[in-house]
Specification:
With about 210 residues, the chain is mostly beta strands. The protein contains no helices and eleven strands. About 35% of the residues are buried. The strands form three sheets. A four-stranded mixed beta sheet has the order 3-11-10-7, with no helix packed on it. Strands 4-5-6-9 form a four-stranded antiparallel beta sheet, with no helix packed on it. A three-stranded antiparallel beta sheet has the order 2-1-8, with no helix packed on it. This is Lipoprotein.
């Protein structure tokens, strides 16, 4: 578990969040917790058959960009962390949950109009390269498969962010973490996406709820 700054950005026409007006320039801010406180595709997902073991898996075995998976499915994807660490990892989205608004109390007024989303994932080193102390980022999407319009980073007591430990440099090494996301009050979460690897920015892997 690690402590870090929290940044929130609201987009779209929700003036109650962090934009002064619809179509206006985005404003970003950071704060620390107070001390007291999409249509279903008919195409089958092209996922990798690779399984856990001792044989390294390369990017050639990666799940295809744009693949649509279900919660519980495993995707093998290329991964980079910082300027000097890269390899291949497998991500399994174990659950996608809406949290209670009260969980964001430590964020103060910047969390007004937001409901937390918890993406609980398991990450496996399948390439066998040194990815120690790295972290993995996913994004939540709405019921329509598009951006939720809210970006939030950090953690809550119900969603603890974990990084890879010092042994995350061999095939089969794993860690679990919770990725904090959010939706605007009243909206539903439809899934999670991974879009950080090469070729995935425009065509992320999607896990549908």
């Amino acid at each position: 578990m690690k402590s870090h700054r929290i940044a929130l950005i609201a987009t779209g026409c929700a003036a109650a969040l962090l934009l002064s007006a619809c179509g206006g320039k985005e404003e970003t801010g950071s704060a620390a917790p107070a001390p007291s406180a999409a249509p279903t595709s008919s195409a089958a997902p092209e996922s990798s058959p690779a399984t856990s073991g001792t044989v390294p898996v390369s990017n050639a075995d990666a799940t295809a960009p744009g693949s649509e998976l279900k919660v519980g499915d495993r995707a093998v994807v290329p991964f980079k962390y910082g300027n000097d660490k890269s390899g291949t990892i497998a991500i399994t989205v174990k659950s996608i949950e809406l949290g209670a608004k009260e969980d964001l109390a430590a964020y103060g007024d910047k969390a007004k109009g937001m409901t937390p989303v918890y993406l609980r994932i398991s990450v496996e080193n399948v390439g066998g390269t040194d990815l120690t102390y790295s972290s993995v980022r996913l994004r939540a999407v709405g019921a329509d498969g598009k951006s939720t319009g809210v970006i939030i980073t950090g953690e809550t007591p119900k969603c603890q962010s974990e990084t890879a430990k010092k042994d995350f440099k061999t095939v089969g090494a794993t860690f679990e973490t919770c990725v904090l996301q959010a939706v605007k009050d009243g909206d539903e979460v439809g899934g999670a996406t991974y879009g950080d690897g090469d070729g995935y920015k425009d065509k992320p892997v999607v896990w549908k709820k």
